[in-house]
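Bumping with the actual sequence this time:
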Amino acid sequence: MANIKDVQRKRAQLFHDLSDGKIPERVPVGGNIGIEFCIQYSGLPLAKTQWTLENIEEAMDKACQITGSDLYPLGPARPPAPYQILGSRTNVMGSKGFIQHPEVSVMEADEYDEFIKNPHEFIMEKALPRMNKELDTDPVTRSIVYAKAVKAFFDYTDVYAQIDAKLIEKYGFYKIPLESAGMALSPLDFIADYLRGFKGIIMDMRRYPEKVAEACEALMPLILKMGTPPMPSKYGQTFMPLHMAPFLRTSDFEKIYWPTFSRTIQAFADRGQTVFMFCDHDWMRYLDHLYELPENTWMAFEFGDPKVVKEKLGKRHVVAGLYPMTYLKTGTKQQCIDKAKELLDIMAPGGRYYFDFDKSLISIDSANIENYTAVTRYMAENSYYNNAGAAAASDGNAGRKFIDVGEIRPFRSKYYKTWDEYKAKHPEINPELESIIAEKLQVYEEMLFMFF
């Protein structure tokens, strides 16, 4: 046990050094594995196991044994029960057992003004019933359905959390502390992914770009509320998957996407929270923009030229990704290791780099598992620095802020109450118990918000 704890401490130090702007002992290694892969790899029925969770711990344990990752490799699960209870149109289990995200529009083009007035209230009152068929009913039934879905969601996530904790301790993985972990979307991605759909948002940006920009601005308080964890930390991470930018004209990116996106990232940094963004598809056009984000923002890329990414961003930010998961399926073991060496030679010098693939390992047929194991273990065993502890490469702009956040209005919604708002309506609360009651009730307030 002592040896595992020592391994865990060393792994944590690798990531802390990156956040501190130091050269770590070696390159930290990632390699995210989806729950769907775990189930398939163990030969279990995919759909049934996601519902019953029978033998899921053994399946997750087996997947942990094939990786050289320093990070806990198993990604968050999407339990099917709450989606079924809600009658979700946006998260639907397909015939093969994978939960898919169909293109759905739940906001009309003429509803921007109403949305801008208060995005959270619009979503609660109009978008959610359109997004989830079982909520499109009378208020009493809607409340019952929502309560069942919330209970189902936390029942499943509690089971997964307990398994995660066991496996992290068993194998000595590093994991971002839960109290410092969050997730959010950029404002425009939120509108595109959940409200208007890809086609709708593209059309809106051409017909009334001012309204789209105003909606992005109105969303910022909600995004910050969603992505700020209880204990912000430079060692924490708010994960932000980015989708729309590669499909936009550069002029639209600069006028509509970038202003609120960049200010959101800076606002998180101003709160002491690091953002880890996954740059979906090809972001090479925007590297100069990304450079201007707060120092030591973490950026993982799906596609791109590693040399250019390292040259433009590697002296200011932590970069990752760019190893094609498809290569693990088509290449020999030696070819896959050689590809890792090639990427290591380009990305590792100067620090500010951790190894990861361009995609997660989602299905059993997405990669040769022996190649996945060989690459992750090779990187963990052969990426040591000879100047560990030295300052990471820098371009002289250390600590410089490029982004002016400006004024961001505080998050307000009649469907979310702070303790002070609750207390004002309940003066009967015993002052001697106030601190205890406040802590308890606010936990449930945050849980419901998280479920939303």
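The tokens above came from a reply further down the thread. The first helix runs from residue 2 to 19.
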